[in-house]
Amino acid sequence: MATELLSFGIQNLWNLLSHEHKQFQGVEDQVDELKTDLGRLKSFMQDAEAKKHTSARVKNCVEVIKEIIFDAEDILETFILKDQLQKSGGIKERMRRLACIIPERREIALEIGSLSNRISKVIRDMETQGVQQIIGDMRDPEPLPERKEFARQEKSNLVGLEENVEKLVGYLVEEDDDPIVLVTGMGGLGKTTLARQAFHHDKVREKFDRLVWVCVSQVCDRKNVWQNILQSFRTKAEENEIMQMKEERLQDELSRLLETSKSLIVIDDIWKEEDWNLIKPIFPHKKGWKVLLTSRNERVAGREEPFINFKPECLSDEDSWTLFQRIAMPMKNASEPKKVAKEMEEMGRRMLKHCGGLPLAVRVLGGLLAENYTELYWERVSKNIESHLVGRANDGNNNLLNRVLSLSFEELPSHLKYCFLYLAHFPEDYEISIEKLHYYWAAEGIIKYTNGESIRDVGDSYIEELVKRNMVISERVSTTWRFEECRLHDLMRDLCLSKAKEENFLQIVGNSSPSVSTSRRFVSHEPSALHVERERNNSKVRSLIVLKKYLTKYGCKVSCVSFTRLQVLRVLHLPRVTFKGRKLPSGIGKLIHLRYLSLEENCSLEDLCGMTMLRILQIRLTGESSLVTLSASIGGARHLETLDIRLSGAAKGTKEWRSLFEFLNLQQLNLVINIPLLSDELQFPSSLTTLFLEGCRLEEDPMPILEKFGKLKIVRLHGNSFCVRRMVCSRGGFPQLQSLHFFELDEWEEWIVEEGSMPLLNSLEIWFCKKLKEIPDDVLRSLKDLSFYDMGEDCKNRWSEGGADYYKVKHIPSVYMYNQLNE
């Protein structure tokens, strides 16, 4: 597998040299020689892969090649970036460049020559070990194919699980003396899938007032679990208060809430009886609540309390085949049965026997084979599975499953292997932000996109491929039709960590243990302090990431003198860090390779000055913040595409805000500020496609201003973004608007929509707007997705099935009304 990733790296180097050939004037001969050497090197990779498992020397050669490729990328990109910076400088910089051009060319010629010598040496070493050259060709890069619009994702299949779901729902809604329901079984059996289906079931939602889902995993932190449960009962605004609560108060608050409500608490993936003993003190003796536990351990609930132990069975052969068919052989027309050639069916059923009836294995195998529905490809995969299993027929379901999962990884294209390995950064059961993930990928050059494409669009296509193959769990959000978060099944994460370790892909560092790894990526989970001096001993580090899974009021203290030794750093993610003197180290500004920087803004606004190439900027401001300073700090960032500003204090007037939005390329604007007026003076960019407002407390209807922005496709008005009683959308307004979301607008009572307004609107969400009396008929006619949550009693009665206005919404394909109308 390493050699395939290296072949991907070699091809990327070839592409870089081809694309940027003009940059290497004066060293053309050395560049051409390096391209020739890269072609020779790649021709040895296939046989090296076959021999590395039986020869330690060949394996060492592969590791040497990996270092050569990384070093070559760093050397060549550094030269290109410095050359570009000098060309864009002033007169003095250009004069200095002319004076230095000869010694710089001499230096790069020597470095390229050194790379060629290293390649020649490792090729000689491989030849002495009997590694053979397999002639192929290195091709100049071709334009990326035009990407098609994403097809709508189908809902998850429940083949063979329907009966289990109904049984589990029955246990949850029954009035009995067993408040604890435990779902147990081996990994890959579908315990979490069953729990999720029951959690969203209509009968369950009718039975309980509150539904809470938390994950525990192998490391149980009682306080964090209790905080997450309480957060589900409270509003977002109370998050800081919950973070500061001591355990005694958390227990009292939760016990009181559970005693006075009918609540279902799902605790997913709990491992030990001791963990349950830590969590359970919050549950009062008075019944009304229920707990659903999922675990691989039957003894997790202990023996002192009564509980129901529900053990789902593996899929039957026929259910396995049905599920496999739906994934591996999707039908164009659901009404017509798929015709399967006899040879294909025989191969499919033979491979399914290795899945042992485990739904996860069936899904992964189906996703693998769906990529290439040909007899030749299926035969190759079948032989690969059988070769992995020779002499291991009695290994049991766990090992069979692991080998199916491993094969699914081996069959990924090279770029998707990199994407999947990157997920090893994240802790167990971590809800991964796909937007951030995309920027990590792009910063490291994994995502390839043209000028006409966005990182999100290309990144979504990569995620979609991993989802289709059942290697990543994610669903598109109805309002944006994008993947917003993803996670890994426990067994997939085990595979990901195993492959990442095998490839030395990254190093997970702790608070105190010194780093001795040669990895070029470092990640730290929940650190209280980060000692950059340790990581900077490896001057070739490409990414440094801190991740915090749980709510906490404590940040991370970064100990460093400077970042100057981390010269090839591309990704720096340090949420809630505290630098000495709250000042961004000056060395960060000299990191010319840096493409992703996240500090959650524990720094000063002045630190943003000079960051003229920023494309995405999120700012959180607390206390007294000068709008003039903010404007001056980001005014030069003319390439901004996404701007997110959250200000805790009040902003008076609009004069200081005008210059904040003079960005010609801005597409997404998020404002969480108190600014009472929108006026024609406050002009948003005409390029804007997405707008989010919260806490603005606008004193006039914002629609006459907003509806003039003809490219707006998504508008979200949240949390008292306006405080007016009446809203009017005019004829011809919002010509491109597709998604509209209202949330917690306490004063809003009347909504008037003139004919011809919002002609393309297809998704509408209205949550916690209890005074709103009516939804205009013109809005409802074109909708494909409608969601209401906790509306007033009058709306509840009229929109429910059988109510006076039910006929207005029954044509909409997807309708969700909490405790009112089932989807």
UniProtKB/TrEMBL annotation:
Query: Cross-referenced InterPro entries, in alphabetical order?
Result: Apaf_helical, LRR_dom_sf, LRR_R13L4/SHOC2-like, NB-ARC, P-loop_NTPase, RX-like_CC, Rx_N, WH-like_DNA-bd_sf
Q: Which residues form the NB-ARC domain?
A: 162-332
Domain annotation Disease resistance N-terminal: ranges:
6-89
| Residues annotated as domain Disease resistance protein winged helix | 426-496
Record-annotated Disease resistance R13L4/SHOC-2-like LRR domain positions: 604-773
Checking CDD domains in the record gives:
RX-CC_like
Q: Which terms are listed as keywords in the entry?
A: ATP-binding, Nucleotide-binding, Plant defense, Repeat
Gene Ontology MF: a single term: ATP binding
Record has DNA damage as a keyword: no
**Entry protein name:** NB-ARC domain-containing protein
GO-annotated biological processes: defense response; response to other organism
